[in-house]
Design brief:
The protein folds into two domains: 9-311, Rhodopsin 7-helix transmembrane proteins (Rhopdopsin 7-helix transmembrane proteins), CATH 1.20.1070; 322-366. 67% of the residues lie in helices and 6% in strands. The protein has helices at residues 9-39, 49-69, 95-112, 114-125, 133-158, 164-174, 195-229, 235-258, 260-268, 275-284, 287-298, 300-315, 338-357, 359-366; strands at residues 71-76, 79-84, 188-191, 320-323, 328-331. The strands form two sheets. Strands 1-2-3 form a three-stranded antiparallel β-sheet, sandwiched between helices. The relative contact order is 0.12.
Length: 380
């Protein structure tokens, strides 16, 4: 058993702080991405709005579940433990247990929905047809149903029983994982050497393998289509497709890399040490943060909008300077513009009188060429 206790109060506090920070950022970034997808998607990005919105919904579902009822899950003493540490009050059973199952369902859904974006893009690019909303929802039902079935199966494994404290409670006492009055935390657990655990391992492995194999096959077919049609594509289309490729690949790799630690502990149960789970769980909550940030940074219309906002704030457009040969007038947003308008009016009247009194000056002014403003190309 690892010398580091997963029930260490400092670790639990740091874990809670890490989760709360990640969840707040996730909500802000995903809501911002919703606005960008709806309002700022260009013509070439509009077909991908379904995929982007689906990714946002999955991420927000996980974030909300994490806020209400986050869980620690780890392997110890040939047993699998699930310990709720979220903000939801301890409701009477089975409601509290259903909250834990919702969190587990949301976690698995991050994996099983990965192929959706690739299958959708395969139909759009290789087959040349955009899936209707009805067909897209039908496609989405498949991973949701598989995830729900797996969650139900796993729920039967860890369902609370009267003998749980006698069978599994000694682990918490050995770890000194108790509160101020010596009470162990609320937990759910199951032995790993039972047939149900073997079936769960096969089920989870099959879901992961199918999801990523499907994604890989679709990605290869899309790449071959791009290679064949690249010369016939306009620069705008090729740029958008390149950006979409980056977004989808990163959104696929992030859960595979970031979440693979706890998931492999869950699927394979390869070690009784919980150090791997500790490291992975600290990264676990940041996956719904990475997805919207990647989309905002990589997709040009969204990035331009955000950069434009920051540029506006930095350059303070509410202030401008009127320069003349002898003085400068600084205008702030709260200043009364009537005096400035009066000043400009006086200058115009004075210029008109000068031109009337001096025909040569009038001809000179009429011949003056006003330079056109120079348009500066954006680097974004």
């Amino acid at each position: 058993m690892s010398s580091f206790s997963i029930g260490n109060p400092d670790f639990l506090l740091f874990r809670l702080l890490n989760a709360n920070i990640a969840n707040c950022i996730s909500i802000l970034c995903n809501l911002l991405l919703v606005f960008l997808v709806i309002k700022k998607s260009t013509l070439h990005l509009r077909p991908y709005k379904k995929v982007l919105i689906t990714s946002i919904v999955v991420d927000l579902n996980y974030t909300i579940a994490s806020i209400l009822n986050d869980v620690l899950f780890f392997v110890a003493d040939d047993s699998y433990y699930v310990v709720p540490i979220g903000n939801m009050p301890q409701l009477p059973e089975p409601w509290y247990f259903l909250g834990v199952c919702w969190m587990l369902f949301s976690t698995y859904l991050l994996f099983t929905t990965v192929p959706i974006q690739f299958i959708y893009r395969y139909n759009l690019i290789v087959r040349g047809s955009e899936l209707s909303i009805a067909k897209f929802l039908g496609l989405l039902i498949v991973p949701v149903t598989c995830t729900l079935l797996y969650t139900i199966h796993f729920a039967f494994m860890i369902a609370p029983r009267e003998t749980d404290v006698q069978v599994f409670g000694n682990f918490f006492l050995q770890m000194n994982w108790t509160d101020s009055i010596g009470k162990i935390p609320k937990f759910y657990a199951t032995k790993l050497n039972v047939p149900a655990a073997t079936r769960a391992t096969v089920f989870a492995t099959g879901m992961l393998t199918t999801a990523y194999a499907t994604s890989g096959i679709c990605a290869i077919m899309i790449a071959l289509k791009f290679q064949k049609e690249f010369k016939n594509m306009s620069q705008a289309i090729s740029t958008v497709q390149s950006q979409i490729t980056k977004v989808l690949l990163i959104q696929t790799i992030v859960p595979l890399v970031v979440l693979i630690g706890p998931m492999m502990v869950h699927v394979l149960s390869f070690s009784n040490s919980n150090i791997g789970s500790i490291v992975a769980m600290m990264m676990f909550t940041w996956s719904p943060v990475c997805n919207p940030i990647v989309a905002i940074i990589v997709l040009t219309p969204y990035r331009r909008f955000i950069v434009g906002i920051f540029s506006t704030i930095i350059h303070k457009p509410g202030e401008m300077t009127l320069l003349s040969s002898s003085s400068s007038t600084r205008i702030g947003p709260a200043q009364n513009f009537s005096s400035i308008a009066q000043q400009n009016s006086n200058q115009v009247n004075a210029a008109s009188i000068s031109e009337l009194s001096c025909p040569d000056l009038r001809r000179q002014n009429s011949a003056t060429v006003v330079p056109k403003p120079i348009h500066q190309e954006s680097f974004f």
